[in-house]
Amino acid sequence: MNELKNLTSGRVFLPGDEGFDEARRPWNLAVDQPVRAVVEVADADDVAAAVGYARLHGLAVTAQPSGHGPSGDTEGTILLRTRGLGGVEIDNGVARVGAGVKWGEVLAAASPLGLTGLAGSSPVVSVVGYTLGGGLSWFSRKYGFAADAVRAFDAVDAEGTRIRVTADRDPELFWALRGGGGDFAIVTAMEFELPPAPSLYGGRIMWPIERAPEVLDAFREVTASAPDELTVWFDLLQIPGGSGFVMIDCTYLGEEPGGLLRPFDLIDGALSDNRRLLPVAELGSICDEPTDPSPGASRCELLTGLDDQVAGVLLGEPIDPLISVQIRHLGGALTRPADGGGAAGHLDEPYLLYGIGLPSEATAERLERLGKALVPFTSGRKPFTMLHGGEQAAAAFPRESLARLRDLKRSRDPHGVIRANFPVLG
After folding, report:
1. CATH class of the domain whose range is 88-196
2. Which site in 5, 43, 105, 233 is 20 to 30 Å from 80, CA atoms measured?
């Protein structure tokens, strides 16, 4: 493996080297990543060299800027840290980013131009990794999956060759990379459209946990007729060792939502309400999620509805030992197949449930119990970027799409040189 150090200009860490354990550690500190080596790549040529080396020696490579969605399935791999592949360029409403760029960087550049990327709740998640898994955005009800906004990828294939992937040059790989995960090529840069956002309204309302039934009723009322420009999330929050709260997070693509959020205004006892017009660059401030690595255990389900029985499951037990149980409103453009869309496809389910807590037996049991109680009201499908350790990529795709992805993997990478966090052949 020492030969690898001579093939790349980036830093290479091998077992026993100072800094190896830190270099292989993902953002989710609860996940262990047993790897053969870590390469902090400096450019696309480093990626090509590392892939070529792996192919020659019967090894596999996996790419992570920081590791927000690790599975721990890295035994025997070379981990490529792509955070050094930076740069944000915006030209005529199209952004070009390196594989290490985070959403906060894109939003900061797009905001003064009256544009936005199809970002999620965290500004520190990588744009490329998020998009390869589809990318569920605050604005997906209006514009669909982030993956369907992509125009082109620069990548390295399983042969170690640098390639450019577009709808015209390689339509099958272009389809797969837009939501099928990182199992088919190592993306080094990406180009995607930025939709307009001349005005953005959003923020959070917080109440004591005792208001949860009223807030959930209002959430169901608002989301039953919400326009595609409005996205609302319901969240039960438990401070470890402290109080519980119920919250509503929202964004609206426009100046003011008028009376669309009035059912929440009628609920007394709000502890805080910071809804306002805000720059796109401040999108991450709505949920104010941790920006430093931390341990976590989570579970995601797609809900087929949110009737009284589901509400009873959500409110029937204390949140503890979980930290958060969140319901996101989907629908809108996500239900409509995009013209020429990618492997992310579309989602018929109107809501997404996401539970998270600190890793422990109690957390695992609570997540399992919550999932089982909701089985009659879940579809079984899960968004790719919200898979967790122990789950498989198969859960993220309809049968036809999964078969198509597996055929492509077998034909383009028969030796398994490239391995995603969740391999499609897993």
Report:
1. alpha beta
2. 105
For residue 60, report the phi and psi dihedrals to the nearest 5 degrees: -125, 155
How long, in residues, is the chain?
426
Please identify which residue in the block is written with the tokens 């204390």.
318
Written as six digits, the tokens of 76 are 């025997």
Q: Which fold has domain 7-81?
A: 3.30.43
The residue type found at 21 is D
Neighbours of 282 (CB within 10 A): 17
Nearest to 370 by CA among 327, 421, 331, 330: 327
What single-letter amino acid sits at 342?
G
Pairwise CA distance, residues 309 & 314, whole Å: 9
Q: Are strands 60-64 and 77-81 parallel, antiparallel or unpaired?
A: parallel
Domain coordinates in residue numbering, the chain: 7-81, 88-196, 201-390
Q: What is the pLDDT of residues 277-300, one digit of tens each?
A: 999 999 999 999 999 999 999 999
* pLDDT in the model for residue 1: 80
Residues 6+ apart with CB under 8 A from 222: 230, 232, 260, 261, 263, 264
Nearest to 105 by CA among 79, 126, 91: 126
Question: What six digits make up the tokens of 280?
Answer: 């796109």
Q: Evaluate whether 386 touches 399 at the Cβ level (below 8 Å).
A: no
CA distances from 235 to 89, 260, 348 (A): 35, 19, 22
> Does residue 390 surpass a pLDDT of 90?
no
The whole-angstrom separation of Cα 86 and Cα 153 is 15
- Structure confidence at residue 6 as a pLDDT band (50, 70, 90): confident
Terminal-to-terminal C-alpha distance of the chain: 27
Query: What span, in angstroms and rounded, lies between the C-alpha atoms of 127 and 100?
Result: 8
pTM value?
A: 0.96
Measured between alpha carbons, how far is residue 49 from residues 5, 30, 44, 74, 285 in Å? 10, 31, 9, 19, 39
Q: Is the peptide bond before 321 cis (omega within 30 degrees of 0)?
A: yes
